[in-house]
Amino acid sequence: MNKIKDISSYSFLKEESFFLDANIWLSVYGPMAYPRKRTSIYANALCNIRKTNCFIFIDVLILSEFINTYARWEHKQSSLRTKRFKDFRKNKAFIPVAEDIAVNAKRITKQCQCCDSNFTSIDIEALLTEFEKGNSDFNDQVFSETCKAKKLILVTDDSDFKDSELTILTANGHLLQA
Description:
Blueprint: E1 3-6, E2 17-20, H1 22-29, H2 39-51, E3 55-58, H3 60-77, H4 85-90, H5 94-111, E4 113-114, H6 124-131, H7 138-150, E5 153-155, E6 167-170, H8 173-176
């Protein structure tokens, strides 16, 4: 049974453990042009999580999604948008973008404890069987398995988690109605 709760009214308890999806990190630390209607809600929640001495976990997939989405967003906004992304990334104009991304990624990692996705213990065959049905994102499946294994509360704005068995905090109305 899913347990989806409104993050704006959630009472954080000392030493709870959270796993924040990349969309949350992008809302709070992403490029200014990365629009999120609920940015202030997630920024306030992050502040409350930290004030309450809760634990925040991150894995390399979340950090990778943050970095790559941020870079691709900046590519779309740049005057070099007619070039391929890899051409943009190799251009000198990308250096300040990369520096900005790195600064924000470091802000994130300083707030978190690193964890791995337990790739060797995940039933990859089952995840791929679910993936091939076309209804799920593979990384989201891995995040779900990580949260289950480590008993983490997922903070996400992603409606794809509506049928999950996880405890989820969100400001996404579609998830809250699930």
